[in-house]
Amino acid sequence: MDLALGCRKDGGMDAEAGSLEVVVEPRSGDFSADAPGWRAQVVALRTALREADLDEVRRREIPSPGHKAGVEELVIALGTSGAITAAVEVIRAWLSRDRTRHLQLSYRDGDQKVVVEVDGGTVSDQAVSSALNAALEHLPKHG
Question: Any idea which fold 15-122 has?
């Protein structure tokens, strides 16, 4: 697995309050982005993330040339180590159900975009958790 880091603190979340906005882009080696079977799998991931102990989960659709539907991204807000742990558990469980699934997790650290790519065959709780915790450490502290 190639591990490059990327996450977002901008748009919709309050970085001032110590919340990290992470864009989650589900992808499949077997399905196109607009295939009904794939869309159902993405809904299952979104539902699992919403049921976890996360600060916020939002959905957005990015237009995709040549497809009826756009590519779905999930935006999650992580403000505590407990939220990171919950996100990692959901991600690991979702990826482990199908080795052709993979996720790109991205966030912003100042001017730099950090990207973490994980898939069903190589997902590591430690790698994802370490990356997200490191990003959280860079957020402004208030209090």
Answer: Alpha-Beta Plaits (3.30.70)
